[in-house]
Amino acid sequence: MGAALERAAQWTAAGSGTGTLEITPLNESLLNQIIKFAEEFSTKHPEEAAFVFREPLEWKTQLDSSVFGKGYVVNEAAVQSEATSRDGQPLLLLSASTLRVRSFDQLSRVTQIAMEKKLKEAQACLEANRDPIVKILGPEYATVEGEDTSILHLFDKVKRGYDPETEMKMKIILLLHQLDLQLLNSSLKQISQDVRLNPAAVNSEVNLLKNFSGKGEDTVLESLEYTSDYVFANGCRAPPWRQVHGDICYLVIKPHDTDPLYITCNTAGVFLNGGLLKGKELDYERKSDVYKDIVTFLRERSPRFVENMAKQEYSFFKEPAYEKNSQYVEGADAEVSGQSQNLYDSTEKKVKSSAAGRRSTGKKLQPTMQWKNTGLSASQRPKSSDKASKKDTEEEGRSSTVSSKMKKKFSANAKSLKINRASGRKTSSSLEDVSDSSSDAEEDEQPIRRQEGTTDLSPEYWGIQKLSKYVKAGDPTATVIALCSMRDFNMAQESCQLAFKDTGCLEVLINLLDTEETNCQTGSLKILKEISQNILIRHAIADLGGLEIMVKILDSPDKDLKCLAAETIAHVARFKRARKTVRQYGGIRKLVGLLECVSVGTPYQAKDTEIARCGALALWSCSKSTKNKKAIRKAGGIPLLATWLKCSDANILIPVVGTLQECASEPSYRLAIKTEGMIENLVKNLSSEHEELQMHCASAIFKCAEDKQIRDLVRQHGGLQPLSVLLDNSENKKLLAAVTGAIWKCAISIENVSKFREYQTIETLVGLLTDQPEEVLINVVGALGECCQEKINRSTIRRCGGIPPLVKLLTATDQALLVNVNKAVGACATETENMMIIDSLDGVRLLWSLLKNPNPDVQASAAWALCPCVENAKDSGEMVRSFVGGLELIVSLLKSKNKEVLTSVCAAIANIAKDEENLAVMTDHGVVPLLSKLANTNDNKLKRHLAEAVCNCCMWGSNRAAFGEYKAVGPLVRYMKTNDPSVQRAAALALYQLSEEASNCIIMHEGGVVKLLLVMVGSTDDPLQEAAAGCVANIRRLALATEKAKYG
Questions:
Q1: Known PROSITE patterns for this protein (predicted)?
Q2: What is the pLDDT of residues 417-429, one digit of tens each?
């Protein structure tokens, strides 16, 4: 078990203390296997279960003393087992939320008592006992690297003489070793699917990096060397005893901006090792996360590497100067198709006029495939050459001069930001935009250029301009006074915000952040926090390197500074490039660290809460990037967010829940929300007085409720009623969209639908079908479609007048809305009275017209909705024929490539073919060959509806013989071998109709259908039994007729 925990389990690499188990599907699978092993241990191995551990397994538990019953002594202070060891120690002791267990028998009981909490208990136990074998058997049996001889030593002891305790240890260690192998094997499939490195790929990447390394300032690295020059026959440089662990080679990399990095290139990826120990031996232990290649590793470790890589771009691709503006979009790492434009006149003026005036020849050179996935090969867009006024030029020069003054004024050691490097940094960051990703729902903000000189400037604008002179040229005291005076202006006013940019004061404010004067840093951050609400200012701060300095400030011991820096990062990191910068400079880990403070529920300082609030705000902004979501999880942010979710302060709850609902789009976060017990707190906060908090809680439930267990948890914690109550707040459309979305997903479970009926939610939803935005209508209609699972709710929708607005929505244009409307109308059409209203409103014609929609989801949902309409309409045959070209259209959809479309169309054809005239028309349009072509499918749902369509299409002319000619009979025989009863029944009915044709009987008999049908004859399903018997009878009649003709 120790080996599996060390090698297969996924642990967080961040945070204080030892790592914790990540909430991942792999870890959940391992934990479930360990729980099963512990639960069954006392039953399968009763003697070994009584063995007393060398030391107790000890961990912090969530179990309460009330869950312990028979076999335990429960008092106010502690719980202890009646069973004791030889020295009188209880085998289980619970004291002050710490649980100590001394035997497998008690471990089995704990897993049974924990019930739904057993996953959390197992996780806590293993995190507290990384190598449990040491506690169970003793330190001499610890998990070791290389050859483990503990079993051999134990075996020698058994051979030397009979010792019951040694023999018991032998059995236990073999059982644990067997579990270890089982855990490693179960994780092997998933791990083996990951991309693996090989010696050739590593060597090629190293050689390529060496070409761009050296002592120059513009090189990507100072040096890169192997630790060993000897190459084995397989291409590896690692010693053989490390190759068995997947090691390929070891490198010493010297970046320009960090200490030397000692890295291991392993088949699983690249990671940081422990470096050289005394005696020049290497510490092979992994000290970082695993990266897919060396470049990805360096991009996360060295900002200078990325910056210089951008400078090397043109020589790297051997690109002529006149083709500098060619643009590439990377496929592997990029999640956006464009790059951010260069936004600011102040930085554009610094680009040489010759470079700004170049134009591309149109030719695109292809990058080397070696660097395809690095995200560093995108060329820059042309920089526009705007005309700058003389005044602007003077201001820019003055701000550059001030930068050096401030550097000398505050501290000789302060690293002042150099404004003339802004354009270089912009190049680097623009490249980084390509590989960052944002949530599906969020479009990256696009700043709009401000038209200058068209409006009169306010007095505040000139006031800030005057004060900026004192900020630039004054001593620290004058600078602080000027900053305080600036804050007297209304920073929410756009003219005041842009004054800082136009006067060059923004660059100085960022310079002040890199000084050692705390008062100046505080004053600067307070202003930057306010003006960064402006989209142009946000982009300017990122271009001038402000984010990097703010991330550095997060390490400051001054709590006020950390709060201001985090809150400013929250404002700036609202676009992709800024979010990537925060992650690249280690900001995610530091922001997660701000959440680490005293336990919630105990007295804690207001300042700790404020720090956590600001950290959560910044994480909320950063979490719109998919990679940042992963980084937050890796940094151990999920348990900390879960902890803060338990507090009652809405100021911190809003950013915490906002971050969770943003991250809930990822499966790993949904799993964590379930296992960390967050649903209870999300439900609790639905009753909050703060509408924004209610909205985020409802949104989180909406994203998580795809999982049935989470839907059940929402119901068990009483979350359905507050969701129903919130529907009355129809003025707040964002809240209404989140609440209706949560109701929609929760209504997937029939048990929840019954609760919604009790709360009269259906009546309220019907009232929301008119005068609502599309994002609300999509959810409302989706919820009604799910509520139609109950017959009484279908009648309720009719009684409340919901059918006409639903039919009216069939003319909408939004694809998601159409899918939900089709489903709701189709569900309502299963009631005859509802169908009459739908028909009178021309709803069937509208559904039929949606079959022409280019979206396959709309086509499929429309075809499914037509099935109950055709089945329940009065004189449905005539109704279908009244649609000009309708039958030809639905038959043509059998040529679709989408399986759901094919399945739904087959179901519709099965209903339409019950009318003889319609069947004749469809036959003329070639329905038989098209259905026959689909027969060789592996999809059970399609098999069922296809067989039903074939069955009903046999009722016209020579269609039975035609199905045989088009080779549809053989596949239908094979359908009988499936384990799905609905497929078997449909296939038997189809075969019964096909067996009326003699040639088909021969094909069936050759396919071995008789033996299969004889089994079905004994079925308790009457239609299946009759169809099977009829088919066998037809085959038998043909055989008798053949014998009679042959022998007279």
A1: ARM_REPEAT
A2: 333 334 444 433 3
